[in-house]
Each structure stands twice: as structure tokens, then as C-alpha cells.
Amino acid sequence: MNKPNKFPEQEQKQPGKERKMRPEPEVIRASYKGSDKLKNKVALITGGDSGIGRSAAVHFAKEGARVAIVYLSEDKDAQATQKMIEDEGRECLLIKGDLKDEDFCKEAVRRCVDAFGGLNVLVNNAAMQFPKDSLNDIDSSQLRTTFETNIYPYFFVAKAALTHLKDGDTIINTSSVTAYRGSDHLLDYSSTKGAIVSFTRSLSQTLASKNIRVNGVAPGPIWTPLIPATFDDVSDFGQDTPLGRAGQPSELGPAYVFLASEDSSYITGQFIHVNGGEMIGS
Ligand code: NAD
Ligand code: MG
């Protein structure tokens, strides 16, 4: 796929729908070959219906995993992801619900384990964002929603998953470049993404003795439904990166495979910065 660096005007509401995007994002490179890196593994991916989560889900299936995906309401996107996974000859369980609710987080883990007999890879990835120009524009209701959506469920789902994760299993948390460089229009969102970095580092330390590794991915601007659903003007999205374009979800999936698999066996508490070349500390 030729990776676009200009996007047509388009409008959506959150949660955005992948099938309504123009152009539709690239989920996985046509040339990507799996090599059983996740054979017989079970993965649970929040926000796995679309965008970065969908790419991780399809790459995991290519590598031999069975995948449960949690999503808020986008049935058609979720069913399309399920089909992509089934086309790889793997099973996919769809779990619809609101991760702000801790009981639902527990239920999601339970349903995954009931269906597949265990859990080896948890990807915490669901999020929303509500761009605002100043702190004064962020009311307490938005602040609560952002934190309750973007960081609380990472705790809830990880906690429920811990009962099942064993030696060699992994947790991967999606943060953002905004955690590292800040964002003048995403004050609350970038704060939750910073919390995710600290959560990842801290949890990695509590689980190291069990050899359960906890890492994260910090994406830069990636062409996913979140973008047309939250930004008014997407035409130049990603052009201010050194590589001069937005990333595609297909450029994220392999990072999740690496962190989920034995290839990263000596790495924990770390982030991979898939951001088009922005120089930020890690
Ligand atoms: P996306 O819209 O495709 O994925 C987000 C998903 O989160 C949605 O599919 C939705 O179903 C799910 N979700 C949101 N609220 C939920 C809730 N309350 N309960 C259950 N599910 C819920 O967008 P994406 O860009 O692929 O986002 C994935 C992750 O990547 C997010 O953590 C986002 O912050 C992060 N990220 C994205 C970018 C980017 O430029 N797209 C940059 C940095 C970080
Ligand atoms: Mg979605």
C-alpha cells in the first residue's frame, strides 16, 4: 500500500467506524508472514475492533493466536475483524460492552477464559479523546470520562487477568507520544497516557518475579477511526513528523507481536515508540 500523507475531509462521531474512513487504513501488510510466534496462545485485546487494536488482533492471528476482542458498540467493525481472524484459520470471540464498568471488565476476562481455556496476552488499548484548546474548557464530567475510559480499565482488566496469566505471559499497554511530549489540545488525554506509562513500569516491577512481562507501545499519529471522529481537520494529519506522514495500523501490529512473544523475553517495563521519528525520551 502506498501510505498517504494527505487525507480528504471527513466527519465522524466517537467511537469512529473504520469502514467509514476514506481511505480505509491498512491493517496488515500484504507481505507479512506469520511464523507461529504466538502458536497456542490466547490474547484479549480491548478496542480490538478497529485501528491499532484490530491490527494487533490480525497480526496475532497470523502468528497462531486465538483472539478475544472487546469493543464499545461498533458491531460491524468488530464482525469485520472477526472475519479477518477467521480467514487466518483462528477463532475470534467478540465481547461488546463498556469498560468503564469494572464488572464488565471482569466479565470480559471470564468470557475469554471460558471460551479459550486461558489467557496469555492482554492488550490494554481502548481509549477516547476530547480535544479542547485550554484547561478552562475541560469540565469535570469530561475529565472523569477521559480517566474512567483510558486508565481505570487498564487496572480493572489487568487485575482480572492476573488470576490467569502465568510464567512467560505478557501485558501490553497502549500509551501515546503525547505522554512524552505533551499536547496543548489533549491535556486530559495526554495525562491518562502518562499514567499508562507509569502503570506499565510499576506493574512490570510487581510481576517480574513471576516472569510476566509488562510493556507498552507509544504511537504517534496513526490513521485510525479515533482521528476523523475527534479532529475537525484531518487533511495534514501526521505531516509534522520527521517521516512526513501519518502511520498506518499495519505499522503497529508487528510491535505488539514482538512484545507479546518470546522474542522480547528480556524486555519488561519498556515502551516502543512507533511515531514517525519524533525524538522523545523513553
Ligand atoms: P480506535 O477508535 O480504532 O480504537 C479505540 C477503541 O476503543 C474503539 O474501537 C472502541 O471500541 C474502544 N473503546 C473506547 N471506549 C470504550 C469503552 N468505554 N468500552 C469499551 N471499548 C471502548 O482508535 P485507535 O487510534 O486505534 O486507538 C487505539 C489506542 O491507540 C488508544 O489507546 C489510543 O489512545 C492510542 N493512540 C492512538 C493514536 C492515533 O493517532 N490513532 C496515537 C496515539 C495513541
Ligand atoms: Mg472502533
Automatic annotation (TrEMBL):
The keyword Oxidoreductase applies. Residues 1-25 are annotated as: Disordered. SUPFAM superfamilies: NAD(P)-binding Rossmann-fold domains. One of its GO terms (molecular function) is oxidoreductase activity, acting on CH-OH group of donors. It comes from the Bacteria. It holds the Pfam family adh_short_C2. Keywords: Oxidoreductase. Belongs to the short-chain dehydrogenases/reductases (SDR) family. NCBIfam families: PRK06701.1. This is SDR family oxidoreductase.
